[in-house]
From TrEMBL:
Binding site for UDP-N-acetyl-alpha-D-glucosamine: R92, R121, P122, I123, D124, Q125, D304, V326
Record GO biological process: cell division; cell wall organization; peptidoglycan biosynthetic process; regulation of cell shape; UDP-N-acetylgalactosamine biosynthetic process
GO function term, MF aspect, one: UDP-N-acetylglucosamine 1-carboxyvinyltransferase activity
Protein name as annotated: UDP-N-acetylglucosamine 1-carboxyvinyltransferase
Keyword annotations of the record: Cell cycle, Cell division, Cell shape, Cell wall biogenesis/degradation, Cytoplasm, Peptidoglycan synthesis, Pyruvate, Transferase
Active-site positions on this chain: C116
Role noted for this protein: Cell wall formation. Adds enolpyruvyl to UDP-N-acetylglucosamine.
Cell cycle keyword on record: yes
UniProt xrefs under InterPro entries: Enolpyruvate_Tfrase_dom, Enolpyruvate_Tfrase_sf, MurA_subfamily, RNA3'P_cycl/enolpyr_Trfase_a/b, UDP_GlcNAc_COvinyl_MurA
Localization per record: Cytoplasm
EC number, UniProt record: 2.5.1.7
Length: 419
């Protein structure tokens, strides 16, 4: 195990390149198994979730090679085989194997997903979708068994606009007979990215990015080449880090439209945000105003940025209230920030944050974005070195974190940890 060591107190300055999006990549890699020839994915992030997913595909018989940020997936020799344990337990998005295997083979046996369990994360809407498409779904000893003699298109209303359920249904429905309509679909940009890949593979998906998605099933899907959209959560984290350290950072390879909620909130606090075509410049200020933030589904403020945003709000004058309407108990970063001197209390789904300076401490990342919150916190600390364990969570989603921060002038390094 490793730990991150950060001596803070330096304003971040310079340019950071944002990699492709984790939450697209972990859907696009399994989507490739629906094709019958090679799929090439460009702008792929170098993160552990993607490495684990490529191993899973190899275990299923696909040929997967990676050269820089390009991955080639040849699924022509893929076999249908149960995946109850092992690597599927390491990441949340292994649930996409359910929709992809179901679409390709009409059956799937997949262990319940792992990843960041900051609160119970049900998959009832995924299952409801597979059943509506004609599959029989059972949970046997913690593995989901799904089987369909013939997938048939259906009208599916999602009780919650779930990103995972929307994508999983799109994957299976793209090979079903007839048309599927998903109502109350999630609208996150990653869903559009998956639809773009599927359509390039020969699928017929319309309406992705709106609350109604129509999928006309096709008999076969073929290989293609696709470039993954930039990671809006990584971009948002660097925007927050630049503001928290009172720095001046150009965040490059972003889609500013995806960052609108974050940009609006930063401006409300007093951060200067300059938008360009594919980049955003953040210019920090000595003083920030306390604000209220509500994490919602897209295009609202992203729940995945809620934890690092909590840290930024510790740098504002006065009391801020941050409420998470997506995950009401996603506050594992709060006790660790408190250990660093933050004044935060959690009430229901809200964190109430009183601004003040943070101190160096030994802290533990309990999940990916809790880790990001601690990294930002450590960067603001003026004296001493902060030690962050649980780095394996951070490595799930931040591509070249140490290199990027070092290039921006931060003092950050990895050490072996016995914890
Ligand atoms: C790999 C990936 O893309 N992960 C993202 C995805 O996770 P994930 O797809 O798991 O999140 P969902 O959009 O499904 O969850 C949204 C809400 O719906 C609820 N729900 C979800 C599914 C279900 O069957 N039943 C149900 O009740 C969840 O408890 C949660 O309250 O979207 C989340 C919300 O933007 C992000 O935090 C994650 O980073
Ligand atoms: C919660 C996250 O991811 P996952 O759904 O893969 O655990 C995240 O990216 O913040």
């Amino acid at each position: 195990m490793e730990k991150l060591m950060i001596r803070g107190g330096r304003p971040l300055r310079g340019t950071v390149q944002i990699s492709g999006a984790k939450n697209s990549a972990v859907a696009l890699v399994p989507a490739a198994i629906l094709a019958e020839s090679e799929v090439v994915l460009d702008n792929l992030p170098e993160i552990s979730d993607v490495a684990v997913y490529s191993d899973i595909l190899r275990e299923l018989g696909a040929t997967v090679t990676r050269d820089g940020d390009t991955m080639r997936i040849d699924p022509s020799e893929l076999i249908s085989r149960p995946m109850p344990n092992g690597k599927v337990k390491l990441l949340r998005a292994s649930y996409y194997l359910m929709g992809a295997m179901l679409g390709r083979f009409g059956e799937a046996i997949i262990g319940l997903p792992g990843g960041c369990n900051f609160e119970p994360r049900p998959i009832d809407q995924h299952i409801k979708g597979f059943e509506a498409l004609g599959a029989t779904v059972t949970n046997e000893h913690g593995s989901i068994h799904i089987k369909a003699a013939q997938l048939c298109g259906a009208k599916i209303y999602l009780d919650v606009a779930s990103v995972g359920a929307t994508i999983n249904i799109m994957l299976a429905a793209s090979r079903a007979q007839g048309s599927t309509i998903i109502e109350n679909a999630a609208k996150e940009p990653e869903i559009i990215d998956v639809a773009t890949l599927l359509n390039a593979m020969g699928a017929n998906v319309k309406g992705a990015g709106t609350e109604t998605i129509r999928i006309e099933g096709v008999r076969k899907l073929h290989g293609c080449r696709h470039s993954i959209i930039p990671d809006r959560i990584q971009a948002g984290t660097y925007m927050i880090a630049a503001a928290a350290t009172r720095g001046d950072v150009l965040i490059d390879n972003v889609i500013p439209k995806h960052m609108e909620a974050m940009t609006a909130k930063l401006e409300e606090m007093g951060v200067q945000v300059v938008e360009m075509d594919e980049s955003i410049r953040i210019i920090g200020s000595p003083e920030y105003t306390a604000i209220d933030v509500k994490a919602l589904v897209y295009p609202g403020f992203a729940t995945d940025l809620q934890s690092p945003m909590t840290t930024l709000l510790t740098q504002a004058k006065g009391v801020s209230i941050l409420t998470d309407y997506v995950y009401g108990t996603r506050f594992k970063h709060v006790p660790e920030l408190t250990r660093m001197g933050a004044n935060i209390r959690v009430e229901g789904r809200s964190a109430i944050i009183e601004g003040g300076k943070l101190n160096a401490a030994k802290v533990k990342a309990a999940d990916l974005r809790a880790g990001a919150a601690l990294v930002v916190a450590a960067l603001t600390v003026e004296d001493g070195v902060t030690e962050i364990t649980g780095v394996e969570y951070i490595d799930r989603g931040y591509d070249h974190l140490v290199e990027n921060l070092t290039r921006l002038g931060a003092e950050v390094w990895r050490e072996n940890s016995s914890e």
